[in-house]
Design brief:
826 residues, mainly beta, 22-stranded antiparallel beta barrel, five-stranded mixed sheet, 7 helices, disordered N terminus
Length: 826
């Protein structure tokens, strides 16, 4: 496709020209590298290549062809069930090869562009149904959501091998590229606020935690490679969704996917990749509180035939917030190249750099002595206008994929992520209530200053082999792999000093906060290295046509090295994490499943022998029913789960005199034992996809209860987190008007939850249930240009994102706000 010079975008064309120069400059550099790649090797739609695929089942033949041709071919099991293929021998173009394989099957492969095809029943030309301009085609979907205009996906990659949602026996939500655009969701926190079953917890403006089923989501993944978020989220830059194809969220234990962690879930962000056809887009979004966002995206072949292709995405996001003097300035540059090293081998590598400057404040708004919120307005910012929380993030990643002649796939991947504070990038104020205070508005103010030095490195290496084989007349699937993950973290070296005591917060002015340092005290710098290594295997066993069993296990090694402490090291060797599931197909659309999953979490505490106690074990039992309708365009799920967290460290119950010490680790306390137990259980319902042509919907309801079954006297019998609602609803839908009004799309949604509370002694904070309503209106001028208007918190509901009975733990939710986006695509 060529771009017509009669359709310029004047305000963004300099950026587009610069990006295109960067893209082709990178191509020149790659073409000079000793890759020995020939343009003739590109698997384009018009280039022929040799195939040697034997006759057999249609599913196996299509799988081998798609891997060899380097295309994405979406289908459903029902389409290929019971059908055979004559095989394929000789030289064929992609379209010719597909036609030959499908000969006599009653199916056809429809070209969706970008190397993607989907299977459909053959229909007469006169019986075809014409859908709206942006409706999902009446065929199955693939693993890539970009360009699908759908709120669901044909496959998820959060496991070690792609599977459809229906064939994944755990609760998984997917927020597609279309959904991210329709709701103007620009960072991970905004995405997870719209995700069923996830609670977003604001430690303060910059540190954000995520919870699912009562437990903290303690790891984030990019393309399956784990990145630890860090305590409180302060060492983590929110990923920008402009670089993402979609976000996958698995709820429950995910020990098979990432080793150690909580039985809460895993968030996997799937990056956008280069396309074989040229495409480009540019957008400008104007929003409340002087928000200005610019995005440019160029992708396509760098040599004839597309054997080498690249993509560049650039983002500049400049915005203030509803709190006084708060601001955020973000720049993102994402580049990725892919090269076909042969007919069956592809090398992909990329770089993403993010620069984030923000004010932020350490803590939120304070509570009164009884735990209720003090009556501060929503625009109150108890920080300083000179405060800084400036960070940079750099991600390098590479993947080598080879498809063997028998259809098996080998993937080797590696990534390195570096997070760091800028020089003098961490400068914050801190509030503390004075001892014996009688006035709830009088607080002590301290100052924290960093000369830099804080940084975290995450390094991932992985290899996975996946494929199918025949045994006892049935086709099975085996996945085996190995991983190594290392997190090397150096803490921020800071200086504290009290600037003022007894400050009346009613007179707070962010521009008049004293910056002078007094009574300086060095904060020792910490250095920790966490290493995880693992071997894993998963076997999908076809027991009968409707019944599949999945058995798996992961063998883990875990090592924690605290370089700045002589007693902080500990390790776990050969920890086995099992996995088991059954999937039973009730009919062509519905499958029932039951699964058992585990995860382990090491504990840096010691028993009476001086040994590190056993890790906690998180075990999840889940049963559910999943539906796949309209050839995969609509997915639904209902599940019931129970999570047990066993072995939390508690004071050793064998100590009865109350005075026994536990040297050298606890000279004034008790030895520990792995004797605690807690439970989370509930119900989840979810639906995503196309209800009818032009009508997309995504939503979910969760009901969760939690309890400390065995814990300290203060915790036993109580819920795990009183600030997590029992009832949680997330829903958003859009509808493209029919006929003469098809250029218009309308949408709306709701975020609702039940009441929450927080207790500390006699102080109690509480918030009743509430609902926030959002709306969207879009208009497409033609195939190239569109405009979109979004309104959030339509009725300007006053509510808190977080509450706390003591300290500075009240955080207001956003007031009513608007955005207007202009987009150009070519």
């Amino acid at each position: 496709m060529t771009m017509s010079t009669s359709r310029p975008i004047p305000t963004l064309s300099p950026l587009i020209r610069a990006l295109r120069g960067t893209l082709f400059g990178a191509a020149l550099g790659l073409s000079a590298a000793p890759l020995a790649v020939q343009a003739a090797d590109a698997p384009g739609a018009t280039s022929a290549r040799h195939y040697d695929i034997p006759a057999g089942t249609l599913a196996d033949a299509l799988n081998q062809f798609a891997r060899a041709a380097g295309i994405t071919l979406a289908s459903t099991p029902q389409q290929t069930a019971g059908r055979t293929s004559p095989g394929l021998q000789g030289d064929y173009e992609v379209s010719q090869g597909l036609a030959r394989l499908l000969q006599g099957s009653g199916l056809q492969a429809l070209d969706q562009g970008n190397g993607s095809f989907v299977l459909s029943e053959q229909v007469d030309a006169g019986s075809a149904v014409e859908l709206g301009a942006t409706s999902v085609s009446a065929v199955g979907l693939g693993a890539i959501t970009e360009g699908s205009d759908s709120y669901t996906t044909g496959a998820v990659s959060i496991g070690k091998a792609p599977q459809s949602l229906r064939r994944t026996p755990q609760s998984v939500s997917v927020l597609t590229e279309r959904r991210l655009k329709d709701q103007n969701l620009n960072n991970l926190t905004q995405v997870l606020e719209q995700t069923p079953g996830v609670v977003v917890d604001y430690t303060d403006s910059e540190r954000v935690n995520y919870y699912s089923r009562g437990f903290s989501i303690d790891a984030i993944q990019f393309d399956g490679a784990t990145v630890a978020q860090g305590a409180g989220g302060g060492s983590f830059i929110q990923p920008d969704t402009a670089t993402l194809d979609h976000v996958e969220v698995l709820r429950g234990a995910s020990g098979m996917l990432r080793g150690a962690g909580n039985p809460s879930g895993t968030v996997n962000m799937v990056r956008k990749r280069p396309t074989r056809d040229f495409q480009g887009s540019a957008s400008y979004t104007l929003g409340s509180w002087e928000a200005n966002r610019y995005v440019a995206d160029l992708s396509g072949p760098l040599v004839d035939g597309g054997a080498i292709r690249g993509r560049v995405i650039a983002v500049h996001d400049d915005k203030d917030f509803f709190q006084d003097t708060r601001m955020e300035r973000k720049n993102v540059l994402y580049t990725v190249l892919a090269a076909d090293l042969g007919a069956n081998t592809t090398l992909t590598g990329g770089l993403e750099y993010t620069e984030l400057d923000a004010t932020g404040a350490w803590g939120n708004l304070p509570a009164d002595f009884d735990g209720s919120p003090l009556p501060f307005s929503r625009d109150t910012f108890l920080g300083a206008n000179w405060a800084r929380w400036d960070r940079t993030g750099t991600q390098y990643f590479a993947e080598l994929e080879h498809i063997f002649d028998n259809g098996w796939t080998l993937k080797l991947n590696g990534s390195r992520n570096r997070f760091a504070y800028k020089d003098h990038g961490f400068q914050q104020t801190n509030l503390a209530r004075p001892r014996g205070a009688t006035d709830p508005y009088l607080w002590d103010v301290s100052y924290n200053f960093s000369d830099g030095g804080g940084r975290t490195l995450h390094t991932n290496l992985g290899a996975v082999l996946d494929g199918t084989f025949n045994l006892l007349g049935r086709e099975h699937r085996l996945t085996v792999g190995a991983e190594r993950y290392e997190s090397d973290s150096i803490g921020v070296e800071s200086v504290w000093g009290y600037n003022a005591r007894g400050v009346d917060l009613r007179n707070w002015n962010p521009s008049q906060v004293n910056k002078d340092r007094t009574s300086p005290t060095a904060n020792p710098q910490t250095h920790t290295i966490t290493t995880q290594e693992a071997l894993y295997a998963s076997w999908n066993i076809s027991l009968a046509d409707p019944l599949t069993a999945i058995l798996g296990a992961r063998l883990n090694w875990y090592d924690f090295d605290q370089r700045t402490s002589a007693t902080g090291d500990y390790r776990v060797n050969r920890e086995v994490v099992p996995y088991a599931a059954l999937i039973y197909d009730l009919n062509e659309a519905l499958s029932a499943y039951a699964s058992y999953t585990e995860i382990f979490s090491p504990q840096a505490v010691f028993d009476s022998t001086g040994s590190v106690i056993e890790p906690m074990t998180g075990e999840v039992y889940e049963v559910g029913l999943k539906g796949e309708f309209y050839e995969g365009r609509l997915n639904s799920a209902v599940s019931v789960f129970r999570t047990n967290l066993i072995g939390k460290a508690l004071d050793d119950p064998s100590i009865t005199d109350g005075v026994q010490q536990c040297p050298p680790y606890y000279p004034t306390g008790f030895c520990k034992s792995a004797s605690g137990k807690s439970r989370s259980e509930g119900v989840e319902l979810e639906i995503s996809g196309e209800l009818m042509p032009g009508w997309q919907v995504a939503g979910g309801y969760t009901y969760t209860t939690t309890e400390y079954l065995k814990d300290t006297a203060a915790n036993a019998g109580n819920v795990l987190r009183t600030t997590d609602p029992k009832h949680l609803l997330r829903l958003f839908t859009t509808y493209q008007l029919p006929g003469a009004y098809s250029a218009w799309t309308v949408g709306g949604g709701v975020q609702a939850q039940s009441d929450i509370y927080s207790v500390n002694g006699a102080a109690r904070a509480e918030q009743g249930g509430y609902a926030i309503y959002n709306a969207m209106l879009g208009y497409r001028f033609n195939e190239h240009y569109s405009v979109q208007f979004n309104a959030n918190n339509l009725f300007d509901k006053y509510y808190y994102e977080k509450i706390g009975a003591i300290g500075v733990n009240y955080y207001y939710g956003e007031p009513r706000n608007f955005s207007l986006a202009l987009r150009g695509e070519f």
